[in-house]
Amino acid sequence: MVTDLTEARAWSAAASVLDPEVPALTVAELGILRSVSVEGDTATARLTPTYSGCPAVLAIELAVEAALREAGFDARIERVLSPAWTTDWITEDGREKLRAYGIAPPVKASGKAALFSEPTVACPRCGSSATTRVSEFGATACQAQYRCTACAEPFDYFKCL
């Protein structure tokens, strides 16, 4: 018999998995864990990749599956591609954790125009908006490399998608 408590336990197990590329965030805080349902002994987690070429997708799916199995469930993963993930799905807690980890969180901006504009990116260390982009790519393809002209520290910015 599936209860709300059973589904909450399955959600909690899946939601606790850390992103392998940005281990300061869980898959729930990143917004890629869409839902978890339980039918019988099987928990199904639905995940949306951050983008189609993300090299961490399989690692994340395997980690969520393992977390569900450790919680006592038979596990199933469904990859959900529509609607496509957007950085707007990162939770407020996730944005604060990115900042504390030293990565500037993405500017909240829905719509296609956000993809073609240069955002004002605040330094996650000192908070200054006097920053310049050094490279379109940072530690991962989802990030760009910036430098703060106020504190002179380099940092990654999680690009708006």
UniProtKB/TrEMBL annotation:
All residue ranges annotated as the PaaD zinc beta ribbon domain in the record: 112-159
Domain of life (superkingdom): Bacteria
MIP18 family-like domain sequence ranges: 11-70
Database matches in Pfam families: FeS_assembly_P, Zn_ribbon_PaaD
Alphabetized SUPFAM superfamilies for the sequence: Fe-S cluster assembly (FSCA) domain-like
NCBIfam families reported in the protein's UniProt record: PA_CoA_Oxy4
Protein name per UniProt: Phenylacetate-CoA oxygenase
Organism field: Pseudaestuariivita atlantica
Lineage: Bacteria, Pseudomonadati, Pseudomonadota, Alphaproteobacteria, Rhodobacterales
